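Section 5.1 Outputs to date
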Amino acid sequence: MTETIVEREHNRDVAILTMVYRPHNLLGPKLMSALSREIKAAQEAGARAIVLRSGLRHFSAGADLDIFVSAISKREGDKEPASQPVKEREYTPTVEFLRRFELLPIPIIASIHGVCLGGGLELALACDYVIAASSAKIGSVEASLGLHPLMGGIQRQVQRIGVARAKEMSMLARRYDAETLARWGLINLAVPDDNLQAVTMSLAEEFASGPTVAHAATKRLAYIAANEGVLAADVAMEEIQKPVWASEDLKIGLGSFQKNGPGLAKFKGN
């Protein structure tokens, strides 16, 4: 019998991916493969927004520690001298996994309850919008193992909350409450526990009802600006905006504005 790792359901234009990888949604090859597979399936099914959540007690307690043990053994057996310069190489599989989230032309909303630690936080930070229950405990705790965030969490924290706060999170390995991280700007919103599901779905439906082609362009330009700078985004902007100018949603939006004023367009996602 095949183990279910990620459940997928659809609520109109919203795909809901629920992680159920026991015991605590530990991030490793199995969970990453399942998430990649289900995100692709959601996109192919025509989803215009994706919710990522957990069906277990915690969103994710971090990475599978067996990965670290294997990595140590592999590096100890590596005969290449440590003083050799770093070679140019492609992104590591874990970094490439998170880049798929950031580059997917569909908004992804991470909905957090319980603990969201280490690799689980790095997963959430690759999403476009992060909402968390007030009781959630969130942090980069890798320093307690003698590590630091390995999947890009440090640099994504720097992007969101600045160098000082990013170093605090990654070096002190504390667990923070959702309200604090929302105030810092690491996550978007903290809500009472009882409201998490309702607010998550309301936000997802709002994303899904928007101009999907324009949202894809926004994600791409934000990615370039964050990683390559404003000048690179300015250079890329005209090419990235071409699908927006050709979209039916633009015609719908302009027509609705002229007829009914702003905010009443019913976009179709193409």
